Amino acid sequence: MRVRAAALLIEDDKLAVMERHRAGRHYFTFPGGGVDAGETVEQAVVREVEEELGLRVAVERKVADVWFHGNRQEYFLVQRISGEFGTGTGEEYTRAAPDDPNFGTYLPVWLSILDALNQPLLPIEMVLLLVKSHPDDWPEKPVIIFEQER
């Protein structure tokens, strides 16, 4: 089973997301990635945000476990400590074949929370939780979501 750590970084009612163009599709995802051997999920989300967005963050709290294709994705509210948005240097940007359509492109962008439901932001179940919960109505305990296949 693969575990993915993902971040919800919100500033001024905007959400940091990764814009993707891949295999003929255009969509947005929450910043994050796989948990490496020897690191906690919290350490992974901090590392992934730095790699993808160029920001150092602190984990505030876990908000959800999303299950999809038998894999668990853990979502965390995070807060910026330092860094300049858009300066990530992770393998997404340094891979040898960025023109490979199966690899696609990665672009960090800010997306208005008000507009999140009108964009192809995945997974939609996390978008619904975000819109419902932000700014002050997050569940006390992490929500468990089983993502519907489309």
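That was protein one. Protein two is written in the same sequence-then-structure order:
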Amino acid sequence: MNLRKTLGESRQQQDTDINITPILNIFVILIPFLLLTVTFVKIAIIEFTLPTLEGATSAISETQAKELTVLVVAIEPSGFEVKTSQKTFPKIRRKKNEYNYDELTKRLKSIKKDFPKLEDVIISPDNDVQYHIIIKVMDVCREAGFPNFSISG
């Protein structure tokens, strides 16, 4: 009888199954969530060397150093002020409450004749100057032969 009792108990233990449905439900939700939230990071390294000061000065001859100049167009409420690193020009005043873009174009073209390799201009607007005026000055600079602008505040 003891033997039967132990055989019956072992049969009951073999018949019981573990319910893995809740665990599978968690994995069905967890795995796609983890896959959707994973971030793939690409690390890139760019190797470069900066030129030395000695190499830069030897590459520029004295005549080229004389030709290097900075052109600044200041936009003020009273008009335009055009300056280079070597010369300051007379101020271009507003006419009838309008900026004189024609005079600015003439001035920039004369500077382009003096410095044909110069392509950069720094536009320095006043705080009160409206955005469309800055855009118009950019267009005038492009027409005069200065395609590269920088805006300084």
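The first strand starts at residue 71 and ends at 76. Keep this in mind for the problem set.
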